[in-house]
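Let us practice reading a record.
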Amino acid sequence: MSDRVTLLFTSDLHGRLGHVDPLTQRDFPGGATRVATHLAEVRARVPDAIYLDLGDLAQGTPLSWLRAREAPARPHPMVRALDVLGCEAMVVGNHEFNFGLDFLKALRRDLPCPLLAANVLGADDQPFFEPYHVFERGGRRIAVLGLTTPQVPRWEEPWNYGGLRFVDAVRAAHEWVPRLRQQADAVVVAAHLGWSGVTDGGLVEPVPAENPGAQIANEVEGIDVLLMAHTHRFDERRGRTGVAAIQAGWGGLGVGEVSLAWNGSDRPAVDVTQHRTECDSADPGFAAAFEEELAFERREMDVVLGEASAPFRVGRARYEDNAILSLFHRVQLEAAKSDISSTALFRLHEELAAGPIRRRDVFRIYPFENDLTILEITVGDVLEYLEETALAYAGPGESGELPPLDPRFGHYNHDVIAGAEYVIDPAQPIGRRIVSLTFRGEELPAQERLTLALTSYRAQGGGGYRALTRARVVERTGKEMRGLIEQWIRDRGTITPEVDGHWRVIDSSARVRG
């Protein structure tokens, strides 16, 4: 009977097949090509090491999106990558639901290994995916329980997870770990969730928790190792139960390594290693196996959609309007024919240069697979929504300074509205910071109803805006925002930057003057 078993894992590869960034064409210090090199090095010394992937495999790069959307019946290139890498089990990540249930069924069909998630239940209240898998190494039985963050319905269109129910991951761990403890020499929880907190930039902790790693490590007896993902961090912790918890970054920037050594005991001692892959060379054989796919991605991203007559700048994005935000608004308002539009800036430093606009440029400024949704909302709730956005500011600025930002409030959650004119004063008490609100120059009664264009992600609850929960869904269009932006540019040929300037933040100097 073996006294030592080695586990290797990656997470949140997000379509990163190669070691060149598909949008910038610059070297990327991770990627599956570098993971392949590292796995080969470990297997040279530990041939029977178990390699797992913890999800968010097939979203995040143009190639992943193109293949998932345009060729869903073909095995996805990232699935083939796991096969080449020798993956022995994969946990379902939240981004696996971006492409719908048909894609998930194809993923489960094509994977060379079990697809795990004990807390995702089907119509029969049984796990829709395999809840766990038991590996045998040298007479030892290693049970791997799969869990995923239960907050998928907070982010996804209903048809992307229809018929599935997401159970609190802590509750599922309490249910499954004792069973596995009875049949295995070691229990590993492989979870697509982080230690704590929220990832969508909001200040509201959802229920059940999005990232309950700490709860699992502190409350669930019988776990030897907790492998974490989802929050893209390098992390190592110990729970109160003694369980070792480890996370190994994202995008192939790291590989986690865990050794279980029994040394005559019933329960294994755990030795944890985190390895960053940026110093490793890319595996030439792996890269060659996917060169055709990567060349296809390059060709698609080089397609010219139109031209920018001048640069589309970001400027002081958290404090004033800019051309990128206004571009998103123009597309949403035209496509939805709504009264107002809401959006956020997804990349703080990504701009459009004057000259040709290629598909890669649209991916740079709009990286997510969001659909357009239309809501009906009262003017009073628009005001409350804007008060929630004003929580982005930690208070008034010092003399001559801009108001400081609350670091917990992600820029990708900081929504702004077009079709309304408003002024934010961070010096005012929370809930009274919107000191002026009009709609095309007119004050409207609180009960009047308006149509609002925004993303499906936000409409479903991403970011935790409470005022939006009271809005009525007019239409879930199913139209991807990035596709709408691309078509909007194609239709015009040449586009000119415009800055709506419908909102502003009062800084200390303006208050002194005023």
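A brief commentary: Residues 171 and 367 are 33 Å apart (CA to CA).
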